[in-house]
Write a structure and sequence with these properties.
Blueprint: H1 3-6, H2 11-20, H3 23-31, H4 33-45, H5 51-57, H6 66-74, H7 78-87
Amino acid sequence: MNYLKDLGLTDDDITIINGSSEASVIEKLKLFPSLVKENYNYLKGIGIKNYKEVFMGHTHMFFINPDRFRAIFEKYDHADLIRCLEKNAAVIEKL
């Protein structure tokens, strides 16, 4: 899971993810690095400032097919979506 460091996560962040995630999530992080990276970079690229918080708290969402992941965000007003996610990262579960 060293690729997570390339995304800007620290060793402490990775330890937190390992300690707070189910074994199936950790396994998927190992199996699907390109999928995780693509979705992570998309979230970062659209201007979400707390993308790291969103990822760490809702890691399982980053295993979604990238086209579906993008479609989730594209159906909402960008400014409103960014504001909502920055106010409460858990909103990602409701999209």
